[in-house]
Amino acid sequence: MTASTTTTAATEPLYWSPAQKIALRFFLVFFLLYILFNPNGVLPYTDLVANLYIQPFHEFIPWIAKHVLHLPKPITVFTNGSGDTTYDYLIVLFITTVSFVAAIIWSVIDRKARNYNKLFYWVCVIVRYYMGITMLCYGFVKIIKLQFPGPSPGRLLQPLGTTSPMGLAWTYMGYSTGFNYFTGLAEVTCGLFLFFRKTTTLGAVLGLVVAGNIMAINYCFDVPVKLLSTFLVSMSVFLLAKDALRLINFFFLNKTAPPSNITPHRFKARWKNITLCTVKYIIIAYTLLTTVYGDVQAAKQYGDKAKKPPLYGIYDVQSYVVNKDTIAPLTTDTTRWRKLVIGYPGYAQVKLMNDSSKSYNFKPDTAKHTIVIFSDADTLKKNYFTYTQPKKDELLLKGTWGKDSLKINFKKFDMNSFRLISRGFHWVNEYPYNR
Description:
- 48% of the residues lie in helices and 16% in strands.
- The chain has helices at 18-37, 46-54, 57-67, 86-109, 117-143, 153-157, 165-175, 177-194, 200-220, 226-241, 244-253, 270-302, 419-422, and strands at 313-322, 325-326, 337-342, 347-352, 357-365, 370-375, 378-388, 394-401, 404-413.
- It is elongated, with a radius of gyration of 29 Å.
- The N and C termini lie far apart (68 Å).
- This is DoxX family protein.
């Protein structure tokens, strides 16, 4: 007779320890408040609704900073491209304080509660969906290559030592389309796994790795999204908490790990369960369609494959004539142009002979062959030029710069001559190519 063993799924505990109950109370309030203050903006009208209740905190948090915390500087900057403003950190402090107080009050009021199995299940559902939607957003902007653009002409000319840590990270990520696909697919896969009960643990493990990598980049390269990435990691850990013993047994102790209890908490009314399931798939489909569609549309405007602005490229000055006087290319000259760099639509960079650079608004009219150049510091002081292209790789500008007349002859630089652009991929390397 052959012996057989039966592995049964773990059952939900009938009694929770005081520490488990307090932790659930704290994290329920903590995560819900964080999600309310940081909606991912995918579902319709969430940003519009969020603005209504977040706006009063733009008054309340600065008041707390001034009168309670006595910070030396007033809070005038709120959440923007940076998710790590002083305001954002104070919001996290506010959320933590409220969650701590709520957990204490709840513990006093609900002392006789035996467990929170059903409540824990629904908190996990909310965390799963928030994290899943966020991961899909993270993933698709990499797959469609919007978050990390390829190196621009200006970036290619920028000395390595002058880049910021974030700029270095963006160039590192933006250089490789394949690496964007790899990281993006990992994030999308994580997001999809988190939408379903049976793959939640796998999604949370993958989320811990993926979000951990995002967090490491943000911390190590000073990217101002440290708070969000940290919360994604903490959410992954929270989702894994239920299966902590099973995972430890499997990965570290070489012991049997029984199946997890993934029985859903259903409503008694059948129509409620059907409605809930329908809403679930509507959310998944809506998130996928709107995220992909929005990213594809955005890629046409500013992605790597978007149409390049007129005169795009790097131009080396061949001759520089001011008021009919040809100016010699002396490296000590702080006014003579050395290069004209046209990268982002509407902007250009002028590199001077002493290697300093200045950025300008750059408005070409391809029909009239005219260009208007002016700085943000003085938008009323405009410089007007006409341009011609005697040959494909030549550019001739004639116009005025302040009170002087300018005539500049340029030769277009072949960007494929940059080693970073031309090196490409090689299966076989007889020797390391590290330059």
